């Protein structure tokens, strides 16, 4: 599996989360519930005007964090729901030598026979079955189900309650909306969006938005690949 810390050997590690909004607080809560980090804190550009978010301390700005020297006792993860921003920040932090954490809520059910890459978060009630591979900086949000042999790219967001049937492929930077359902063996391309509550029964190309039951394309997004 991914870089899930070992409770006995890594509990002294600090976790810093980039962001201070609702998603960052959910990630902080999942990290605290896991018990794998000695301390959990936030870094956000609202500092010093804001020094707390929902009970979590904000210790500085992103530049304040980057001014520190990376060390073995300090991990970071991005607490932003914006896929592109999350990936860009992760690349920036990794290039600066930071160790990216993978945050997994203890209520998640995850097969030992899957891979979750660094910087991803798996939230409460998620099920991920065997043979799956999930890229870096992904969000698998509360109650989502990712069935066997799925392949999810980098900075994907699977929203709460979404269901991916077996062997689904989702390209980098795509967003699968809340309570949507994707039938088996489908591909969703890069930087595409599936609207909330949609049922996807056919392939969705890159840079597209699809909604409805069954899902239909409503527009092609004008984005750089």
> Main β-sheet, in a few words?
8 strands, mixed
Write the H/E string, N to C. Answer: HEHEEEHEHEEEEEEEEEEEEEEEEEEEE
Number of strands: 25
Please estimate the helix content.
10-25%
Oligomeric category: single chain
State Rg: 17 Å
Structural class: alpha/beta
Shape: globular
Q: What strand order characterises the main sheet?
A: 7-10-13-16-19-22-24-25
What is the rounded distance between the termini?
29 Å
The overall average pLDDT, rounded, is: 93
Low confidence ranges: 1-10
Quickly count the helices. Answer: 4
State which percent range the strand residues make up. 25-35%
Structure write-up:
This protein has 225 residues and is of the alpha/beta class. Strands 7-10-13-16-19-22-24-25 form an 8-stranded mixed beta sheet, with helices on one face. Strands 3-4-2-1-5-6 form a 6-stranded mixed beta sheet. A 6-stranded parallel beta sheet has the order 8-11-14-17-20-23, with no helix packed on it. Strand 3 (52-53) and strand 4 form a beta hairpin. The model is unreliable at 1-10 (pLDDT under 50). It has 4 helices and 25 strands. It has helices at 7-10, 22-34, 62-66, 83-95, and strands at 14-18, 39-43, 52-53, 56-60, 74-78, 99-100, 103-104, 109-110, 115-116, 121-122, 127-128, 133-134, 139-140, 145-146, 151-152, 157-158, 163-164, 169-170, 175-176, 181-182, 187-188, 193-194, 199-200, 208-212, 215-220.
């Amino acid at each position: 599996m991914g870089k899930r810390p070992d409770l006995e050997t890594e509990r002294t590690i600090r976790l810093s989360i980039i962001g201070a909004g609702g998603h960052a607080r959910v990630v902080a809560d999942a990290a605290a519930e896991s018990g794998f980090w000695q301390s959990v804190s936030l870094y956000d550009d609202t500092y010093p005007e804001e020094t707390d978010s929902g009970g979590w301390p904000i210790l500085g700005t992103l530049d304040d964090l980057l001014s520190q020297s990376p060390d073995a006792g300090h991990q970071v993860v991005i607490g932003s729901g914006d896929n592109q921003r999350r990936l860009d920040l992760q690349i920036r932090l990794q290039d600066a030598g930071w160790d990216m954490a993978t945050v997994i809520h203890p209520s998640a059910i995850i097969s030992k026979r899957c891979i979750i890459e660094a910087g991803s978060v798996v939230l409460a009630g998620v099920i991920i079955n065997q043979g799956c591979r999930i890229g870096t900086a992904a969000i698998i949000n509360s109650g989502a189900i990712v069935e066997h042999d799925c392949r999810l790219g980098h900075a994907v967001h699977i929203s709460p309650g979404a269901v991916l049937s077996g062997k689904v492929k989702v390209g980098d930077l795509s967003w699968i909306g809340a309570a949507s359902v994707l039938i088996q063996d489908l591909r969703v391309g890069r930087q595409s969006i599936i609207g909330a509550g949609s049922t996807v029964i056919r392939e969705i190309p890159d840079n597209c938005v699809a909604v409805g039951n069954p899902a239909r394309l409503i527009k092609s997004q004008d984005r750089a690949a």
